[in-house]
Structure to design on (490 residues):
């Protein structure tokens, strides 16, 4: 069980304190999933970072009763001078996994071939994204955090990601945050809308979808994180 | 701020050990790579520094006339001690900021990235000290230590001081860039006062009292007491140095914790 209890997050900016998330509470049981819809700057990525444990809430409490992933396909943790393989080894050491057991999967999924043993700085965006996604899949998690904004790549990559995540791991829990309502309707059994830092609950995915798609387009927010 | 914790203390230690080991190896490859000598540079780099300083000091005849201390041993013990506190702290100035993306992994904490860098520096300086003193002893330019237990004690105290200082500097850099800018000149000025290039006993009484406020001076004196035995008269107060290090460690650990919570992505 993953639970958020009255979680708020503020940042100090040059224009004073800015509250990004206000009093957010929800729970997610093992094997279940939830989609969080929100426009740019609604606080989606901040929420994912808090749930992942990378950042701490200003107030409130997050309980992780299961193994929660880092934000999926996040390539930002790669050391550019190290090879893909070195980066794989690092992640495996941190999560206590023998890298040899996951290497075949990573080699197969990334299709990097000998490039896996080249420095990551020579990789294209697509190659980095494939490696990042493969690493997330190589470590066993009970709950995946998916920030759609972070997933880049072509149609084939997307199809393979969907296959790994939503078919092969359909017994796992996940939280999908996106501004794309169609995705939530396709993959999620529950949906909420994040609007100006507040979480709006809905009885069905369809209700959340209808609300979100009929929301007036807000003025662009400056300093979206 | 509370995070529900269901991990036992033993598990926490296991996780932290794993994380620091992973960071250590990652840092090792990132800094030294696999070209030419590769990771041997971890020891080679401080060794070259020490060799250079030893040559300079020998040419300059820095050792006190009639003190009975061979210059090579004086320089090796002195400069190796400097490496312990100065390099640890210098390497930590960018540790947290530079590894910020790694903090995305929940089990990787700000203190771990600092401790990994400190471990790297201590390993390098220790390897360099052991290698050089063994080599010079083999050549007959240095005598073996008079009391190896005291040498180890002094070395460990210097490591403790270096580690706590490095943690404090590393954390403080998160709050202000100024710390990084100031650390360079401060470490430069501290070097000649650190006891590396003099024995406290050579100083006038008044100066002795002043330099003995600096904790690393006690460590170097202890190290040299162990190395040279009664050939030299040494001045140190282990209680003072331990107390200083303890307070520094507590402040540093607290500050790293606050700094880790401050990190934003």
């Amino acid at each position: 069980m993953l639970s958020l209890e009255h979680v708020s997050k503020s940042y100090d900016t040059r224009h004073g304190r800015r509250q990004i998330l206000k009093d957010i509470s929800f729970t997610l049981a093992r094997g279940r999933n939830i989609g969080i819809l929100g426009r740019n700057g609604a606080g989606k990525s901040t929420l994912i970072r808090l749930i992942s444990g990378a950042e701490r809430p200003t107030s409130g409490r997050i309980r992780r009763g299961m193994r929660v992933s880092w934000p999926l396909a996040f390539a930002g943790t790669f050391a550019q001078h190290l090879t893909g393989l070195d980066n794989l080894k690092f992640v495996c050491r941190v999560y206590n996994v023998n890298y040899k057991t996951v290497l075949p999967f990573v080699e197969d999924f990334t299709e990097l071939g000998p490039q896996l043993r080249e420095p990551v700085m020579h990789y294209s965006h697509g190659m980095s994204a494939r490696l990042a996604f493969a690493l997330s899949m190589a470590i066993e998690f009970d709950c995946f955090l998916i920030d759609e904004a972070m997933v880049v790549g072509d149609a084939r990559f997307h199809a393979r990601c969907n296959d790994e995540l939503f078919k092969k791991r359909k017994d796992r829990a996940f939280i999908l945050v996106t501004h794309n309502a169609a995705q939530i309707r396709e993959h999620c059994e529950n949906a909420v809308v994040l609007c100006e830092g507040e979480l709006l609950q809905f009885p069905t995915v369809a209700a959340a979808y209808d609300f979100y798609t009929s929301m007036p387009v807000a003025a662009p927010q400056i300093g979206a994180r | 701020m509370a995070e529900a914790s269901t991990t036992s203390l033993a598990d926490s230690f296991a996780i932290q050990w794993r994380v620091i080991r992973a960071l250590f190896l990652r840092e090792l490859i990132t800094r030294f790579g696999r070209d030419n000598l590769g990771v041997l540079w971890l020891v080679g780099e401080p060794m070259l520094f020490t060799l250079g300083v030893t040559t300079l000091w020998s040419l300059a005849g820095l050792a006190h006339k009639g003190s009975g201390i061979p210059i090579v041993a004086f320089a090796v013990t002195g400069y190796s001690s400097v490496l312990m506190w100065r390099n640890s702290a210098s390497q930590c100035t960018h540790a947290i900021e530079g590894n910020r993306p790694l903090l995305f992994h929940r089990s990787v904490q700000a203190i771990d990235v600092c401790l990994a860098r400190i471990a790297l520096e201590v390993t390098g300086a220790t390897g360099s000290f052991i290698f050089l003193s063994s080599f010079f002893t083999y050549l007959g330019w240095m005598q073996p230590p008079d009391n190896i237990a005291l040498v180890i004690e002094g070395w460990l105290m210097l490591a403790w001081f270096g580690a706590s200082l490095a943690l404090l500097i590393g954390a403080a850099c998160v709050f202000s860039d100024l710390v990084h800018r100031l650390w360079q000149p401060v470490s430069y000025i501290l070097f000649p006062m650190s006891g590396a290039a003099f024995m406290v006993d050579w100083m006038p009484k008044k100066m002795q009292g002043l330099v003995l406020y600096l904790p690393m001076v006690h460590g170097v004196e202890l190290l040299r007491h162990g190395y040279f035995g009664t050939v030299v008269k040494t001045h140190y107060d282990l209680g003072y140095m331990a107390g200083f290090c303890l307070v520094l460690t507590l402040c540093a650990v607290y500050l790293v914790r606050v700094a880790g919570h401050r990190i934003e992505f």
In short: The CA atoms of residues 187 and 263 of chain B lie 26 Å apart. Chain B touches chain A at residues 1-4, 6, 18-19, 21-23, 25-26, 29-30, 33, 101-108, 261, 263-265 (CB under 8 Å).
